[in-house]
């Protein structure tokens, strides 16, 4: 089997470190791993397959010989450096929102739209974590009953906002003084109905991403989506309350059957035993967990359910590595 030269850009961040862990766990065919970070974070080493790998400062020349570059260093770094990686012949899989909505950049969740990979011109975008887990669960239902409208409220863990956010929560819980603030308010014992910045119409950027990305991944602009994204003082995963209106009638047994057969979905739904998805159970797993599946009695063809998934894994690192695996499979390179 061919082996690949793989680069991780943003290697010292929460997602970058998770990418390295997932590459190792999934035995991705890595011939050589190169790790890059900003000048501030360069100089450390990270262990991969039992051997320390140096973290180097990212430059425009970093991509010589690289086959696959996984980017997770923020949109500005992606915009500046991804074109250099492409020019050097690498496939870029970018975890930021920098290119997600560009027409010739596929936005891919391998369980949902693997066929879109073929259209890439050097860059494939990894969707937002909240979008990924939602579309994995919704795709098998959309295929069967066609979604008219989605109303989603998220309960997003703090790791989605990076290491500074984790430090803020831990600092506040430990009642430390001078805790550096990632969020505009305390996050311990609190809930913030704001993720990312506010844009037009009173929505946040995270909410707009969920709307636009869902349509692009599902390949259906007619799906109506409205979202409220909320930060909760939790680690282990993002949770979502999802209300869906379908065009066609369904039975709950059929929904359970469709979800039960769907790749990447695990049903946790036994309310008599208080079994339902929770972030403490999704932590370090790759599945999208679905439960509390019930009819919305207020409309025709309405369904309510609850989705939880590890945002650093399926919501970021695992999805990126799965895209690389699917690319190898499709292109047989
Ligand atoms: O807050 C979360 O739980 C997810 C955050 C994602 C995020 C944070 C900063 C910038 C993104 C993203 O992936 O959409 C971006 C971005 O690239 O725009």
Q: Which small compounds were modeled alongside the protein? A: ligand 3JN
Average of the residue pLDDT scores? 97
**Number of β-strand runs:** 13
Choose one word for the global shape.
globular
Give me the CATH fold name of the largest domain.
Answer: Dihydrodipicolinate Reductase, domain 2
Which class of the largest domain in CATH terms? Alpha Beta
| Largest beta sheet: strand ordering | 3-4-2-1-5-6-7
What's the total helix number? Answer: 8
Strand content: 15-25%
What class would the helix/strand composition place it in?
Answer: alpha/beta
Assembly category: single chain
Radius of gyration: 20 Å
Report low-confidence residues grouped into runs of 5 or more.
none
H/E series: EHEEEEHEEHEHHEEHEHEEH
In whole angstroms, how far apart are the ends? 10 Å
- The CATH level-2 architecture of the largest domain is identified as 2-Layer Sandwich
